[in-house]
Amino acid sequence: MVVIERFSRWEKLVGSIARIHWLIKYLKHKFQGNIKCEDALNQEQYVKAEITLCIWAQKEHYEAEIKQMLSLKQIPRSSTIYKLCPFLDEQSVMRMRGRIGASPYVPYGTKYPIILSQKSRITFLLVDKFHRRYKHGNRETVVNELRQQYYVPKLRALIAHHEALTPNHFLLGSSSGIKQIEVHPTDIKSTLRSSWKLAQHLLDSFWRRWLREYLPVITRQDKWFTNIKDIKEGDVVFVIESGNRNTWRRGLVTKLIKGKDDHVRQAWVKTSTGLVRRPAVKLALIDVQH
Fold it and tell me: What confidence score (pLDDT) does residue 219 get?
């Protein structure tokens, strides 16, 4: 049995399923005495693997709806996918019946996208693949490309969870730099005041994201379960304190205080306002070379 949680990339997961399909086919042909079995994976097997994963994801989250459709019964109105008019295709894949079904110029997968739950690990890996394909670009680009083949409820919220913090967020306000057009006051004083407030709001937003996404990387963790490299004299650190952005002081470790286990428990740090003594867990090492 394949444990989906062990995979971090969609491509590796699909490859594993494709190899399982190939092995089953190979053993079947060998048992039947057929020596013409293909000895390598092909594109058809990869496509079959992707379909298999979609079916697994659907059975995990929409099992009741699938049973209703297999029994030729209408799914209940209380279902979260009732309004999508779902149906099972010839491969038992659940798809959405949209408004463009009669269009002769639209590919089948676009007319009837595969329905996937946003809660599925398989969906998470699939979204991650599209995110990487488009270099963590504009959220709408990822949404548009995914919806050419799949329908995922609350897709934008799922993609926002994937979006990486990039230099564009600090310089332009978003990963792509595209922002909604804002209406500014016409008089100079109001314009300057509004611009200042907007700048402060953006800085506060970046600060919160920095705390949430980057700080855990540089802060000491798992102190009871893994061996962690102690800070040392000469390290540049942030002194973690409560408060808003720009209140954390940066300093240089000048003296260490070790515990009975010979690990650093506290340190003296030279900051712009003088020497301070802080617990090691309140010091975030800045990854710089000096």
Answer: 42
